[in-house]
């Protein structure tokens, strides 16, 4: 990084410093590289450490940096896109699906989910838990709710539990003819369980993408996917999918 002192500007000094640091990250550092400590950075740019911390915090919010105890501040991988469309696509678990099934249980879903699925409240459904990892870090977790009538041929003998059961449910879903998918997205905060899965603190900002899979004129499955807000950006198109891809952009859209 250069040693040029910051000139007097109208914008807050930390914001100008953030811009300078961002340019340095693009030209001088690679993904995963550890930045110099705060004392050295503050000295190089001639700013107070409080100003430096503000700039670093902003870059972390934008997904440019990751700060972890015992490691330091590292350059984060590029943000990934969550592409939202409205047209027909495929069931989860298809050949191009990068989500990893982790577990499957039979339990009553939340009342709001039961209402969407049009199952009786308290009636058990298949709950498939999946995760998504990129650049070695968890970026999203998903709960996929599947009513029993959507997978009538599912055999408990072949796949009694765990990831094998999850794969069996996903495989049986492929038998249905998918009519369309409907997506909705909202900003939320990570609960204790989600925070643990995503390696974040409880209350961290997340993007919650809810997807209804329509078949035979009804909701055949409902996905509630939680994405780390510091690693994802939204893109909108007509592809009819919710997919994650590595992209060149690093700032939030």
Automatic annotation (TrEMBL):
Residues 11-78 form the HTH gntR-type domain. Pfam families: GntR, UTRA. Keywords: DNA-binding, Transcription, Transcription regulation. Signal peptide: none annotated. PANTHER family: GNTR-FAMILY TRANSCRIPTIONAL REGULATOR, MANNOSYL-D-GLYCERATE TRANSPORT/METABOLISM SYSTEM REPRESSOR MNGR-RELATED. This is GntR family transcriptional regulator.
